[in-house]
Specification:
Elements lengths: L5 H11 L2 H15 L4 H8 L1 H4 L3 H18 L6 E2 L7 E5 L8 E5 L16 H5 L4 E5 L9 H18 L9 E6 L1 H9 L5 E7 L14 H4 L3 H6 L12 E6 L4 H16 L6 E4 L17 H12 L1
Parallel strand pairs: 3-4, 3-5, 5-6, 6-7, 7-8
Antiparallel strand pairs: 1-2, 2-4
Length: 303
């Protein structure tokens, strides 16, 4: 990765609020990125290849999630739109007034589904919370613009219907990897009280130069409009988490996004998960006493 100090530029951008500063920062960073080979660019964002045994970790999540759904079958596959993946799985708490963790799944907007992540409910459910997981159409069937719009529609439906399913408390929006990006893009939804963005991508420009763009097919306007680091931050609390053992590009994205929000004096913690890689970091949300479970609990107390 480039040695260019991008964080310093982000601070300058936030302070100046000038489009010219944004252009200078992007040009300086791209100069370093442009010296990398295609293989190096791909490796910079390939989390599965970077973590030995990642497929086994996900298979474990799949099994745990299937077991969770079998034991909580009452509110599954509720459609918010007519497409195959546009459905909600809801796991209401016994007390409807308790907070609800709304979790958006990852997979670089082109793989995985909500079904893999039902097991995330265990952590906050042990504290009496509700949990809700939306699905969304994947690339290339849907563009990133369409995915963001679809997830916004999902939140519209949920706000309209959640009380019918026993969920009436404040909503904490969480997401992992691509879902972390979607948290940042959807934080302005009026139903959301706070966000927990885990191992996210907040500058999507470099992805156009990697294998990921074979399905994403990013356009110039999408890079400008859908990169949270290029947008004015939303004034709601957001905890930004990442594993200290993650790929440098993801660590940098999280640090830069937190720095941008901090420069605007907006509340939110930066939570490095010691030794966590892209996959084991998320498991801190599955445990009753996990670092990310505790982060969610803190958000409910401060938002």
């Amino acid at each position: 990765m480039s040695k260019f100090d991008r964080r310093a530029f982000v601070h300058a951008i936030a302070a100046l609020g000038a489009s010219a500063a944004v252009a200078r920062a992007s040009a300086a960073e791209e100069a370093g990125w442009g010296t990398l080979s295609k293989a190096e660019r791909d490796a910079a964002y390939n989390n599965s290849a970077a973590v030995a045994g990642s497929a086994d970790i996900v298979a474990k999540w799949d099994a745990a999630s299937e077991a969770w759904r079998k034991s909580h079958p009452g509110h599954l596959a509720l459609p918010y739109a007519p497409k195959e993946r546009t459905k909600w799985d809801l796991f209401p708490a016994s007390d409807a007034s308790k907070p609800c963790l709304v979790h958006i799944h990852g997979g670089y907007w082109q793989t995985r589904s909500k079904d893999t992540f039902s097991c995330l409910a265990e952590g906050v459910a042990a504290h009496g919370w509700s949990v809700a997981l939306p699905g969304y159409t994947l690339a290339p069937e849907a563009s990133l613009t369409e995915i963001v719009g679809e997830c916004r529609s999902a939140l519209d439906w949920f706000e309209q219907h959640r009380r019918e399913h026993g969920i009436a408390g404040p909503l904490i929006l969480s997401g992992w990897s691509a879902g972390g990006h979607l948290v940042a893009m959807l934080l302005d939804h009026p139903s959301i009280s706070a966000g927990l963005a885990i191992s996210g991508i907040y500058e999507i420009g470099p992805l156009r130069d990697t294998y990921l763009n074979e399905k994403l097919r990013l356009k110039d306007f999408e890079i400008a409009a859908l990169s949270p680091l290029r947008l004015a931050p939303v004034n709601k609390p957001v905890t930004i988490a990442f594993g200290t053992g993650e790929l440098p590009a993801l660590v940098e994205n999280s640090r830069d996004y937190h720095a941008k929000r901090a420069a605007a004096h907006i509340a939110g913690d930066l939570v490095p998960v010691p030794g966590g890689n892209h996959f084991t970091t998320l498991e801190q949300l599955m445990r009753k006493d996990g670092i990310l479970t505790r982060a969610a609990l803190r958000l409910s107390e401060t938002s």
